[in-house]
Specification:
Two copies of one chain form a homodimer. Chain A is 46% helix and 16% strand. In chain A, strands 3-2-1-4-5-6-7-8 form an eight-stranded mixed sheet. Chains A, B: This is DUF2520 domain-containing protein.
Chain lengths: 257, 257
């Protein structure tokens, strides 16, 4: 497929790399910043532009990978008529693309993507479109990039996005808080890496509820009290410690939330 | 080394497997339950007993891997005199072992261990002892089981244990809450597995603070509001969403907590 890529951020960059690695062609990169557009275009061996009026009209698909809040205004300035256009956001309706074209849909990567990644990760792709033909076309593209492809409505995608924020952004913030605590207390955070990876990887063969370990699930009150005392000078961590301990024990006691 | 293993739970089982896999000998397993002691002893090709008075007196090292709250009472009933004895707990002082022997220390696996594990994970080991000679002896044993070995005082170990609880037990509970949310809303939690693994693995080459993505760090208020509205029926998740969003933005704004 010949693809026009609108955006130069983390999602545009990683999707662009996946797309070219799978043998498709990115014909043009659009970006507001000439430097960023030129840089990504050079990497993907594509043309670039900073002017919407100079968008290459001959692509098969236009992917809008810009900040959520900018999607509607970018769509409004796109002169696509009946070309297929998608956006890549978890929490924005596909209907905002109606103004750009009669053919529109979704190409949502369920991953936390950073330009700096050394290797391209596995990326589950959730797709949607306003016609069955375009859904089939997007499915073919998605399957050429990923082994995990699903169709998800606006509402389903929004729900998965909420869950994704919980298990990636919030989890990562726990890592950040723990790292700062270790730095403040002279402990070596990198000793925790094997533990962190193991807890994530065992989800492949064990539900998280069955995998829970630690002082809270053991109702080990002396240890919990020692830990809370140690966190006296770390207000946010102390709040979290109390909250999670209570929630883990509530879950264990009831079997449901 | 010839080792006496006291306990039959998750830590005793996984350490026993690591120890025999490294070519050492578990001479005897002690457990209160004959079934559990016999089962683990059979797996490790060791003898077993349920009677402290029948503890094999000829081991080089005795490892107490029982519930934190039981360590002191187990130590008090051990007739070891001048044999080396260690426990495996993050948050219990090594001094509780004084009653059992003149030679005592720590052998703390910084991992979340479950008997059901199909593969033995990498296990960072934190050690301590009341004499330099025994510290050297424990270091040799630890280095035969793990590439990550550190010496940690009671206080340092307690601090790392708190951090470990944050990045493993609390993280795992986030996974549990997200899985239950997906089940309640008809979404496929397994689509999130690649995301979860990627967020954990990238710590090898990126600090969590630099790796943060998502609506909170982007100050993407429309998305945050959509997510909060969706969580109206999920009280605990809504609380967490608000807490983490605020904490992530506070961290981003100040560069410190």
């Amino acid at each position: 497929m010949r693809i026009g890529l609108i955006g130069t951020g983390n999602v545009a960059t990683i999707l662009g790399r996946k797309i070219t690695a799978a043998g498709h062609e990115v014909v043009q990169v659009y970006g507001r910043s000439a430097i960023h557009a030129q840089q990504l275009a050079a990497e993907l061996q594509a043309a670039y532009t900073t002017d919407m009026d100079h968008l290459d009209p001959h692509a098969d698909l236009y992917i809008i990978a810009v900040a959520d809040a900018a999607i509607a205004s970018v769509a409004a300035s796109l002169p696509l008529q009946d070309k297929l256009v998608v956006h890549t956001a978890g929490s924005v309706s596909k209907e905002v693309l109606k103004v750009a074209s009669t053919r529109y849909g979704i190409f949502y990567p369920l991953q936390s993507l950073r330009k700096e990644m050394e290797q391209l990760p596995d990326i589950p792709l959730l797709i949607d479109a306003n016609t069955p033909d375009d859904l089939a076309l997007l499915r073919d593209l998605a399957l050429s990039l990923s082994t995990q492809v699903g169709v998800a409505s606006d509402e389903q995608r929004l729900k998965l996005h909420v869950a994704a924020v919980m298990v990636s952004n919030f989890t990562n913030h726990l890592y950040t808080l723990a790292e700062r605590y270790c730095q403040a207390e002279g402990a070596d955070f990198s000793l925790l890496h094997p533990l962190i990876v193991q807890v994530a990887e065992r989800l492949q063969y064990m539900s998280p509820q069955d995998a829970q370990t630690g002082p809270a699930i053991r109702y080990d009150t002396p240890t919990i009290e020692k830990h809370m005392a140690l966190l006296e000078q770390h207000g946010e961590m102390k709040e979290l410690y109390a909250w999670f301990t209570k929630s883990i024990q509530k879950q264990a006691a009831s079997g449901e939330l």
